[in-house]
Amino acid sequence: MPAFVPANPALGLQAGLAVKAVTIFPDNPGQNLPVIQGAVLVFDPANGKSLALMDGAAMTAIRTGAGSGVATDMLARPESRTLAIIGAGAQALTQIQGICAVRQIDEVWLFDHNADRAERLAETMANSPDLPRRVNVLSDAAEAVMHADIVCTATTSRHEVFPHKSVRAGTHINAIGAYRPDMREISAATLANSRLFVDSRTSCLAEAGDILQAIKEGAIAPGHIAGEIGEVIAGTLRGREFADQITVFKSVGMAVQDAAAASAALANARAQGIGKVVDW
User: Fold this and answer.
1) In the chain, N or C terminus with fewer CB closer than 10 Å?
2) Which has the closest alpha carbon to 280: 46, 48, 54, 49?
3) DSSP assignment, residue 9?
4) pTM for the whole thing?
């Protein structure tokens, strides 16, 4: 996943040039290893010199959580106070952190098919002073969603992870799993009854199983996508239209996010003296 990001002095952003390589091994949890691993190589955008090697899994989790945080800020009701997390894997904690950065979350509801993993996430949150202390681990995803103003799905499921009837009016959903056409987290009914935004229209119409399967079933058409979240941020597209509207942000990830995040991480590491300098 290579990308170049030009500098934007007005926003204080440096130019970034990076490539991310990832591996996906579905059986890794049985070896106490994450499913997705990888590395990010950062280059000097002026001359191509190698500058840094970063952990791809950590960078992916951070930038994905940040993306959901931005989408939540743009689309969720300002008074949203409860959060449901479906899937307690590597992406879950940064999803919570990103959302808590933009909304005052008082209570979190967790569901994962692996109850031990959900309990470990709850324990991590309990030991994090900046995160909500009211955390509930449930054995049913639909029940978690029924309690929530904001929902995040971060799974590798091939089937919808909760029924549409469990979604309350006014809910905002960040759907960051289902990054392949054969995967699915969000039901066709939920998509059809929501205002749908994506990170990249082109990528989601090629990769997002939730959307592709709903189109194949005739529940929605490609035009049902209201637009890209960048259009909402830029002020050229309206986000939420009314309080009871269900909004969905579907993300499959973009290389440009990795490049921007890696550039920012490198600048911060240099400023704080973090990392190890080696002869390349």
Assistant:
1) C
2) 49
3) G
4) 0.92
Q: Are 83 and 152 in contact (CB under 8 A)?
A: yes
pLDDT at 90: 85
Sign of CA dihedral 150, 154, 155, 157: positive
- Joined together, the tokens standing for residue 51 give 């500058």
Which residues are paired to 197 by β-bridges?
227, 249
Q: Give the chain's domains with CATH numbers.
A: 2-58+256-272 (no CATH), 67-254 (3.40.50.720)
Six-digit token string for 139: 């054995």
Give average pLDDT by consecutive 10-residue segment, the chain, 280 residues: 90 87 88 88 94 93 95 98 95 96 97 94 92 94 97 95 97 95 97 98 96 98 97 97 98 92 92 91
E strand map for 64-177? 82-86, 107-111, 134-137, 150-153, 172-175
DSSP class of 181: T
Cβ density class 87-109: b for 16+ within 10 Å, e for less:
bbbbbbbbbbbbbbebbebebbb
Where do we find the tokens 């091939």? 158
Helix, strand, coil percentages (3-state) for the chain, rounded to 5, are: 35, 20, 40
